[in-house]
Every structure is written in C-alpha cells, then in structure tokens.
Specification:
The structure holds two protein chains of two kinds. Chain A contains nine helices and twelve strands. By secondary structure, chain A is α+β, with helices and mostly antiparallel strands. Chain A has two domains: 65 residues, no CATH class; 222 residues, Alpha-Beta Plaits (2-Layer Sandwich), CATH 3.30.70.20. Chain B has a domain of 87 residues. Chain B is of the alpha+beta class. In chain B, a hairpin with a 2-residue loop joins strand 1 and strand 2. Classes of the chains: A alpha+beta, B alpha+beta.
Chain lengths: 322, 202
C-alpha cells in the first residue's frame, strides 16, 4: 500500500491511502497523518484529503474528525447526515433517508403502561426490533415483557422468557424499556458526554461519539441500555430506511444503544412503534406539557407508580391500573 | 394571660407553617408539569402526516374538544344490512351462508348473555339501538357500548383506554371500540406471543 505525504492549499499536511484502501491501510495512513495532523487540528483546520483518494475514505476521514452532535451547527449536522447517507450507499448499498429533526418546542414526552390491560402478546417487541434496526443475530431487544405473579410489582421477580399461549390466568404482564429519566444516572456516568437528555426529554446517544465503555449501562438501574458486540445484522429487505441520527440508524460495532421513544417518528408527530403495534391499547404516549393530552389524563385520573421511584431518577414512564 | 396564649398560638402556627413548607420542598419535576395549564395545540406540530384510514367526527367530545374515530361500516363485509334484510324470503340453498352462522356470540356473563337484538335494531336493520330505543349508527357504536361499559368509555374519551391512530400530534383520531374488540366476542383470544426474549447479556 502506497502512502505519500503532500501539502494541500490550506497548509494542512495530511496523508491518506489511495484507491483500494481497507481499514488497516486507513489506520496506517492515519498514524502517519497524526503527527502532521495534530498541528493542523490545533489551528482548527480539518485535514482534507487528496482528490485522488476514494470517496469512501474521504467521507470516513471527515466523519472521524466531526464534533459531538450537541456542539454541531445545523449545517454541520446536515453535512454529517449527508456523509452517513452516502457511506451507507457506498459500504452497504443502502438507500437511507437520515434526519436531524430537532425537538418540538413546548413538548416533553411521557409514557404510561397499563399493567391491567397488557396481555403479553409482545407485538410491541417485534415492532420495536423492526423499526429500530436492531441486531437479529444476537436478538437485541429494547423492550422486555415480564409475566408477573399477582401482588408482585418488581419485574425481576417475573418471567421474562415466557413462550406459551398468553394471557395466562391469574398472571399479569409488565413491560420495561428505557424510562427516559428526568434525572438520568446514565448521562452522568458517561465520561465523554456521548449521552444526554434532549430538550424534549428523550435520552439519546451520539453513536459516533460513544467509546463503548459501558459505564452508562452499569449506571442504569433499569437495565435500559444495550451494547453492540458486533455490527448489527439485519435482512436487507427489513431495514427501516427512514432514520434519525440520534435514533434508529444502524449502529456501528462497539456502541451503546437504547430506546429513543422512536425519535425518528415522535419528532414528526407519530407514535412510537411499540404504541402503534400494541393490540390491547396498554401503551399511552404523549406530551406532558399539554394538559389535555392522553398521558396527562392518565396521570390525573389513574393510580400510577414508577419503578424504583425512591432512587430519585424521575423516570418519565409510569405504570397504571384501570 | 390571653397575651401569652396568643403568643403560643402564633409560635405554633409559625412552626406548623415552616414544617409544611419543608415537607413540600421535596418537589418533583412532575409538580411543575402539573402546574402548567397553558394549552398546547398539537395540530400546530408541523410535519404530521394525516391519518390515511377512513374516519368520522365523533358525536362526543373530550373537555370541549372534538375528535375523530375510525369508521366501522367500511369494515363490515356485507354492509348495508338492509340489502338482505328485506321482506323477501331467502332461498334455502343460500341459508347457511346468509344466516350469520360464522358468528359465535360470547358477550356478557351467563345469565346476562346478550342476544342479537340487544344491540341490533330489530326494524331499522342498518342501525344499532340502545336500551332507550334510540337508533345508533354503526360508526358511532361507542354510544352503545358506553351504556354498560361506562368506565371504559370515560377512560377512552380521556385516552387511558384504547389509543390514538398513528400520531400523537395533529388532529386527534382514536380507535373505535369495534376497531379492536370483536363486538360479538370482545375478549381478546389467547395466542402465542409475536416473539420471545433471550436472556439479557449482563
């Protein structure tokens, strides 16, 4: 593999492999570039690449030096999305539409789960897997449904692995997922601020900023987070192509992921996939800041409780009974 | 003497006031949320795609706000009923197909089990009727269901029972009773779950 040093017009010297590069040569080029590139970075100049370098390498190079999503301007967000769309086309021959839809003003999302209605059909789980491009190989799932004994309210006492005809007499069903805590411990545990709460209350992860240390997973008292041990494997015809940068885009290997209340759907006014799929109407979703919303009706008129409320994490996910 | 008593009373009230204040200081973000009474019109949310399914404006309102429900008539295969239910006789060879033999009625408990004309209007065959004898349109069957299931109806109007169609924002469109429940056998049937869960990797 041939690498050559060159100085471009900006005065940034950087090196990159030429045609036919793979990951190894990319890294090799990177190590050579590091010395020269560090000077360039200090002056705030993103190293550009030779025109001869293949498009894929150029895009990956630019992706490598991008900012944390929260610090990006709208133009930078659009630029990274365009790059990711193009990379999906080049690497996996996928035509995706990625969005950076911002939060809607005066909206704070809240969720309620009716434990006296859920009958354990798990339509929500399979809808979530499909919508969020979850790995089929390891069968990653954001939602878990527990078959519970009457009188118990802690899902750890329930059976999360049932597979028989449901509902079973004298049992009830309880779903868990990320609760999008208002006072989220996971976001505090992250050493590089790759996870945070958006103004509309959704706790998100910048997958490209995440280093995969899994501190957040250890910090979450609700087992709400999942880790990608490999690149997600999804049958090509089942890939959801309408994606969001902070949502259901296909995660790289070694990144944390979790429920995002289907950010790609909710920010354009749609219900999360689990709510839309639920055949029993056990799932209620809406705007907590709207006194007339369904979620506020539940909070006002129903007996509600939250899981491990004593921890002070303030989940925006309530359980209720009829 | 009275002055001293008054002083004690003031002191006591003051302490009580402090105590109640410190009790209320453990506030949750929820308290702030519940104080918000300013209305939010979710129809102002841009980019909401309208519901594509057939809907009709409901005859009820929630807090003075109108909403829409999914229609029912278009889901009934052989509507209008009056196409067949005329004064004319039906020939025997069509009998099995046309006498609703496929319907298994399982609504109401044993001695209170319902029969056809508890809900279906005996003369105006294209309508339902309630216990007062009022005609009820198939698209507005919630008016009929609600006379027994009033608690469910109250929850349905507010949003704790049933659900919205497709969108949380935009014009409120909700599922009708019979969109989810088979009116002849309203309880959901037992079946296998759609998927299963592997153990968590922890």
């Amino acid at each position: 593999m041939k690498s050559d040093n060159s100085s471009d017009k900006n005065g940034c010297s950087c090196t990159i492999g030429t045609a036919g590069s793979d990951r190894r040569s990319f890294l090799k080029g990177l190590s050579i570039a590091a010395a020269a590139g560090s000077a360039a970075l200090a002056t705030g100049c993103v190293p550009s690449v030779e025109a001869a370098a293949p498009e894929k390498m150029k895009l990956r190079w630019q992706e490598f030096f991008k900012d944390n999503y929260r610090l990006m301007t709208q133009e930078e967000k659009e630029a990274t999305i365009a790059r990711l769309e193009r990379l999906a086309k080049l690497q996996d021959n996928l035509d995706i539409q990625m969005s950076s839809e911002p939060p809607i003003e005066r909206v704070l999302y809240g969720y309620a789960f009716n434990i006296s209605r859920c009958e354990g059909f798990m339509e929500c789980v399979s809808a979530c897997v499909r919508e969020n491009n979850l790995d089929r190989k390891t069968n990653t799932q954001y939602i878990r449904i527990f078959e519970m004994e009457p009188g118990k309210l802690d899902p750890s006492t329930g059976d999360g692995r049932y597979y028989h005809k449901v509902p079973v007499e004298n049992k009830f069903y309880m779903g868990t997922q990320c609760f999008h805590c208002e006072n989220a411990p996971c976001t505090k545990a992250c050493p590089i601020k790759a996870t945070w709460m958006e103004p509309d209350g959704i706790v998100v992860v910048d997958y490209d900023w995440c280093i995969g240390c899994r501190y957040c997973q250890a910090a979450c008292p609700y087992y709400g987070r999942r880790f990608n041990w490999g690149k997600p494997e999804i049958p090509k015809d089942e890939i959801t192509t309408r994606q969001h940068y902070l949502g259901n885009r296909i995660r790289p290997k070694g990144k944390m992921e979790k429920c995002t209340f289907c950010i790609q759907r909710t920010r354009v006014g749609r219900l999360p996939a689990c709510v839309e799929a639920c055949p029993t109407g056990s799932r209620v979703f809406g705007n907590l800041l709207d006194p007339e919303s369904e979620i506020r009706f539940v909070l006002k008129h129903k007996k509600v409780f939250r899981m491990k409320e004593e921890l002070g994490t303030e989940p925006k996910f309530w359980y209720f009974i009829d | 003497m009275q002055k001293i008593l008054l002083m004690y009373a003031c002191l006591f009230l003051g302490l009580a006031g402090v105590a109640s204040k410190s009790g209320a200081s453990e506030t949750s973000f929820l308290d702030e949320i519940k104080d918000i009474q300013e209305k939010f019109d979710s129809r102002t949310v841009e980019k909401v795609r309208p519901v594509t399914r057939e809907t009709v404006l409901a005859k009820d309102q929630y807090n003075g706000r109108p909403f829409r429900v999914l229609t029912r008539k278009n889901e009934i295969n052989r509507f209008k009923c009056s196409n067949c239910h005329t004064d004319k006789a039906v020939t025997v060879n069509q009998g099995v197909e046309l006498t609703h033999g496929s319907i298994s009625l399982n609504h109401g408990r044993e001695e209170q089990a319902l029969s056809c004309i508890d809900c279906h209007h005996p003369e105006e065959r294209d309508y339902l009727w309630d216990k007062k004898g009022e005609k009820i349109d198939f698209n507005h069957s919630y008016q009929l269901c609600g006379q027994c299931h009033f608690r469910q109806k109250r929850d349905w109007l507010g949003g704790a029972h049933g659900k919205r169609v497709a969108n949380w924002a935009g014009e409120r469109v909700i599922y009708n009773c019979a969109s989810c429940h088979d009116p002849h056998s309203p309880r959901f049937k037992k079946r296998y779950p759609a998927t299963y869960s592997p153990p968590l990797d922890r």
